[in-house]
């Protein structure tokens, strides 16, 4: 990654964007894509669009969601402790004894999710997973009145962790699912913008609210009305302990983008992706998807009269935790593969079944 690309990615990962509260990340994404897109805009839902060659045909949509899982404050007790509900699929195992940032209109507030010391836990309690209603955030105040001067009901919080690079081209951060997808489609669009001849119209969309039901992809795909759609998300790497390859397949970090094959995927678009990867010597991995995927590709395929759809995923370890890992070469190769595939799209008829 070049310096400006890395800075863009770091900004995306470190900026809060729980589902329904994606505006800070959307602003960063739109500012970056303005450098090379013909048109950049938003919609009433919060989706962000960057378009190349608006009058071209066929219409291609690239989608990567920019929201992350998080917490929402829903109650403050008399002593100023904050209680919360999850936004998206949060793992209750990992929350206690974590630092969080609460994002208020007055600025971020540091807090900790309290945890009873092991010394005062009865043995049976040590084996239990805390329920959300039994967890609280401590912001260091002593009363509800004091807390309400800082916090409002409905404020959101994220884990207080940062983007960092490892020595092995691995990157660690909160919410790579799926701001890495939003990053990748922006990068793909930038590569496409450098091509001298582009007949297709390409719209990259940083979609919102995927984590709570693929909502942004539903509205944005309807408005873009594409002929071809490629969604970019993360998928489970199975190359670490305690995962069953018989269930998840053999997916490795650093071995290339993962291309889904199955009911959610147009088979001719799948073949084009595989053929292009082979021609350009881009490593790929194949994943079996026997039904609709839990990604934006699902709703894109079913938009209006149907869309020729593909899903290209980036291997990810420890999804929906504060220590998600992705490999930089997988990210770079995903953006390059998408750019090459879009360049090879001539007509929507080539995907008719």
Automatic annotation (TrEMBL):
One of its GO terms (molecular function) is aminopeptidase activity. The keyword Protease applies. This is M42 family peptidase. Its cofactor is a divalent metal cation. SUPFAM superfamilies: Aminopeptidase/glucanase lid domain (SSF101821), Zn-dependent exopeptidases (SSF53187). The active site is at 210 (proton acceptor). The lineage of its organism: Bacteria, Bacteria division WOR-3. Keywords: Aminopeptidase, Hydrolase, Metal-binding, Protease. CDD domains: M42_Frv (cd05656). InterPro entries: Peptidase_M42, Peptidase_M42_aminopept, Peptidase_M42_dom2. Zn(2+) 2 binds at residues 177, 211, 320. GO terms for biological process: proteolysis.
């Amino acid at each position: 990654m070049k310096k400006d690309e890395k800075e863009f990615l770091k900004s995306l990962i470190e900026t809060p964007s729980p589902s329904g509260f994606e505006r800070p990340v959307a602003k960063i994404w739109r500012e970056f894509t303005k450098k090379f897109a013909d048109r950049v805009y938003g919609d009433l839902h919060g989706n962000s669009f960057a378009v190349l060659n608006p009058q071209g045909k066929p219409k291609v949509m690239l989608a990567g969601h920019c929201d992350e899982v998080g917490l929402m404050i829903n109650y403050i007790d008399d002593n100023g402790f904050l209680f919360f509900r999850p936004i998206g699929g949060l793992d209750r195992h990992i929350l206690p004894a974590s630092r969080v940032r609460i994002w208020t209109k007055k600025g971020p507030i540091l807090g900790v999710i309290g945890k009873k010391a092991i010394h005062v836990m009865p043995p049976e309690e040590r084996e239990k997973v805390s329920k959300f209603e039994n967890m609280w955030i401590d912001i260091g105040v002593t009363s509800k009145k004091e807390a309400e001067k800082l916090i409002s009901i409905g404020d959101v919080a994220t884990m207080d962790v940062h983007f960092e690079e490892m020595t092995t081209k691995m990157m660690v951060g909160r919410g790579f699912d799926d701001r890495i997808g939003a990053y990748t489609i922006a990068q793909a669009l930038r590569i496409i913008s450098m091509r001298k001849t582009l007949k297709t119209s390409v719209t990259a969309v940083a979609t919102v609210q995927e984590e709570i039901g693929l909502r942004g992809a539903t509205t944005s795909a309807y408005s873009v009305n594409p002929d071809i759609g490629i969604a970019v998300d993360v998928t489970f790497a199975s190359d670490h302990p305690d995962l069953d390859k018989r269930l998840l397949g053999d997916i490795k970090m650093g071995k290339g983008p993962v291309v889904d094959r199955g009911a959610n995927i147009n088979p001719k678009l799948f073949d084009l992706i595989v053929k292009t990867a082979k021609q350009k010597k881009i490593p790929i991995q194949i994943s079996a998807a026997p039904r609709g995927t839990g990604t934006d590709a699902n709703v894109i395929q079913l938009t209006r009269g149907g869309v020729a759809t593909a899903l290209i995923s980036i291997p990810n370890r420890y999804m929906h935790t504060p220590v998600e890992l992705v490999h930089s070469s997988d990210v770079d190769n995903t953006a390059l593969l998408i750019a090459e595939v879009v360049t090879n799209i001539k007509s929507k008829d080539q995907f008719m079944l």
